[in-house]
What we know:
Shape: globular
Radius of gyration: 14 Å
Number of domains: 1
Amino acid sequence: MSEPTYLTPEEVTERYRGEITPGTLRNWRCLRIGPSYVKVGKGVLYPISELEAWDRRNRVECRPAR
């Protein structure tokens, strides 16, 4: 079976090990912040490609110690 292209808010919570809850995602959608999503009827889906891009935008680079 192929990898899913979209994740539900619950699956996004699993992806981020519970650090981002479905409630947080809901609040972010209202505030228009956080990862991009697709709305299908009342359903909300997060494209994995958008989650990966969001990860890259939020990456914190650390410099090596001197």
